[in-house]
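Interim report, section 4.2 (structural modelling).
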Amino acid sequence: MCGVLFLFFPCSKIYKQGVLNKDIEDIIRFNCRMPDRVLGDMNAQVSSCRTGERRVKELVEKFGLDTYEQAVTEILDHGERLARARLAALPKGTWSTEDWVDDDGIDKDTMVKIKATVTITDAEMVVDFSGSSPATRGPINIPFGCTLGVAGLVFKAITTPETPANEGNFRPLRVEAPPGTLMYAVPPAATFTLWPALLATEVVTKALAQGMPNVVPACSGGDVCSMMGVGTNPRNGRMWIEATNEGVGFGGYASGDGENGIMHVTEPGCRNNPIEVLETKAPLHIESYGLREDSGGPGEHRGGLGITRVYRFVAPSSAITLVKKTKTKPWGVVGGREGENCHVILRPGTQQEQVTGMVYESMAAGEVLANCSGGGGGWGEPFKRDPEKVLNDVRNGYVSLARARRDYGVVIDAGTITVDVAATAALRQKHS
Amino acid sequence: MRIAVDVGGTFTDVIVLDEKTNTLRLEKVETTPQDPAAGVLQSFQKANARLSDIDYFVHGATLGLNALLTRTGARVAIVTTKGFRDIYELGRTSHDPMYDFKYRKPKTLVPRYLAFEVTERSDFQGNVLTPFDHAEAAAVARQIRTLGVEAVAVCFLHSYANPAHELAMEEVLRHECPELLVTLSHRLSREYREYERTSTAVMDAYIKPVIRSYLEKLDGGLRRGGFTGYFLLIRSGGGAMTVASATEQPVHSVLSGPAGGVIGARSLSQLIGHANRITLDMGGTSLDASLVVDGQITIEHEASFEGLPISIPTIDIKTIGAGGGSIGWIDDGGHLQVGPQSAGAVPGPACYGKADVSAISRIYAGLVERGQQALGRDGFQAKAQTFLCSAELRYQGQEHTVNVPIPGRDLTASDIARIADDFNAAHLTQYSHHMNDPVEIVTLRVSAVGLLPRPLLPTIAAGTGGSENARKGNRSVYQPALDTTVDYAVYDRGRLLCGDRIDGPAIIEEPSSTTVLHPGDVMTVGQYGELVIEVGKR
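Predicted structure of the assembly:
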């Protein structure tokens, strides 16, 4: 839960020799709007650290410091051996590509470029973000530590996805970015909540897709698509702040469809906020929540579907939507087509209806906001998709009858919900 | 006579406690998967138990779990609020694996085309915002009827606060599709979180047909054979339930398999002392571990099965995919690995403002009354009924709760202060910190317990302290640390007597398990036949 706090703490110790630094705690408490939640979260993190400290001490006491240190070294070396073994099996080469963040939050008309060049040799994988936008005025610059994380996420996903992470897993990876640019923020560049980091993850996979389309999937819906509401709760006069991220469609891949409605790959463990909880804690009414038909990119393996959630604000509130990939669509791979993009609709169906992206908007009582998350891109030629799978897509409402015909060349009888094999063959033949 | 039967994958275990002769007997028969009820009845014959002599028959029914594991349960349709058919399909939209761009969710039990919507809407306080549309509901019911559905799970938003629309839907289904089995979500859970409640209702519907026909057959066979005693099934959350209860809400049997072992461990703990125990149950492919803490079984209320949530009380058991038959292998980095790893890992309305003491007492009184009625229907007199009240509490602003036992009746203001103190202490124990923030109650719980007379576990005869009568021979055992073999003495557990002592290295054999003592370990036999081992320095 982000506490909306804009302070730098340069590794300041909150506890020294077991004693709380009350001054720092007070600075946090008095400078955020939901101090209870923020400090509750902080205390939970402190407890986790203390538990970790206890466990490490127990290990050292039981096995002795020498054995412990040798074990640590071996665990890291094992992680490296595993990574190198898997790296050796990947194709070698250099691939370069780019994608775009909607804007930097200040200049709404200029898209911001992320460029990634990935090189794989026998010895290493290099991810180079040179050619990305210079540092932006608006707060979307990424500290280099985060850029290391972006490349690391992709590297581990294609080498050692199944084991718990350790530093050894990342030794064959080298990451480059010119200081003072988007992917290497240098003070006083404005930073915020990581956007290009999110999007940059999939720019790296987009580059890899050129060289190994069987290893990486198409683009996912691409963003966290979060909606945060803030206001005063008329039921108790207190401030409320509630939010939920939305799942996106994952990209189709060599051996399967992208999953529907799953939190972006950068947010493992993140769950949506249940409707019944949102409506209990806040003056919100959810009108509907469900999958977006036809939002998955067509392909031999279809991209997953995105989600639409419609909010009605029961009392005057502020709505903050966090999404920065609405002006580009999630790309497909090896002939797969784009998925539908993320977007936000303010006041749908009214004179003031507006299709937009990231906003901080005052919503009057009774006003509506629709948050639509993106679908995944498709993998492979849509006309090669097994007609039985298309039939299943139509039966389950993932793909409409019309799009089954138009995108996949599959003709389905609306009455019996069966494939017209002859018509399908003819249609696919005609367009091939 | 008491008899307990546990149906496993290969074998069905039968234990007979003859209270007249104070003897305990164990039998094994082969499981008959094509007709499990017949298999159980046969196992009574093998155990030479006359049905008319049996006072209590306790059964760990794994049929529901097997149906889930093999995906052979009923064809289920979901009915939910208009605009929300994807609550079940989407779930919490989470993925736990951290580095998986190709993540696929565990398959759900209901395909999207069997999820239907009906116009209706309540708010979180139970006020009706949109009335239930009977005509539309009837049309949905008729459509469901054409699709070969066997059971229906109904879950409307906020039904925990106002069940009226779910009840109305049940009526419609009874009228339009009388042969379909129906589960209403509010009957299984009165807490918020719509996905978890829907998932629980779906699981109940999924196993209802197979459990009902199994229990009908088994109970029928027993009664026809002269059985007049109590037929009880183990509950996932500990304790037991009658056939009538299990027929109504079979979901409470789903995770009951490993529950029996933990319940037994707690009983043993009470008999021989030591309030804190780790329980282990190792099978061929997996191992279940649990804790008995301060003599109490640990219960959780958010269990899950293969990623699908079940919001019923279950004993907190962690399972890993490494059992007696698990395969060791060397990974790409040269390390030894064992098996695939999997760890079983997972409130009513919040009260705003100060705790309304009389309101809480009233709610408890209502819950206790419902418990009294339920126990009464199961045949328990008032003096055999007891009630455990607890509440889920959390710091304001946090999401997750801690369960704290509380006095349910006639609460006073000073009780509230003590409850807050108990919560802070429990939070400190579980999370290593507590705060000065206001505390809120999220859920009030009452466990209504019917007390059954406890069996007396038979004691074994006392010996002279030596164990030579139980000696079977020797075995050579390889010691990796010494890179040589060492002779281990082998004993038959069945011939050991109370007070016997064995020093390691030794192996104690019995039909269903093996106990190994290493050099330095010392074992003594207790009065119930339990083996108490002082582990030597490793």
